[in-house]
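[Archive record]
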Amino acid sequence: MTVERKHREVGSSDVARAAIRLAISANMEEERAEKSRLLAEMGIRACGVDFGGDFLSSTIRIIERAIVAAKRENVILEQHNEVGGVAGATREALQQVSTKAMGLSVGGKIGIARYGTHLSVCVYFGVGLVHLNEVAIGLGHRAI
């Protein structure tokens, strides 16, 4: 019996929530526990990766980090449609917070989750100067 048949129907909302949970995990232990729970309870594959730097110059590196993490953790395969799905969903998530982050330093975490054809990427980060930080979250989805 496959993982998909053991669990209730998992939809795009469930995958989006999973990506958000991974992105807001406080540390590696919490991330590992959440990944294990998602896979065991719903069959969702997921991963997280940290990032930081100037928003404009880091945008490409953030997308690259998301792709590398998704491949490394077997969330996606090394196929152009799956790599493109992660890149597109990450770019969409970044666009949602770009007005808040433009020209400032950012640091945070990317959460990536996938179930079947549903793929969600969440970016969660602090935006600011010195110690004056705002929190921003963006979410992108692709069907691959």
Q: What stands out?
A: The CA atoms of residues 13 and 80 lie 24 Å apart. Strands lie at 45-54, 105-115, 118-129, 132-143.
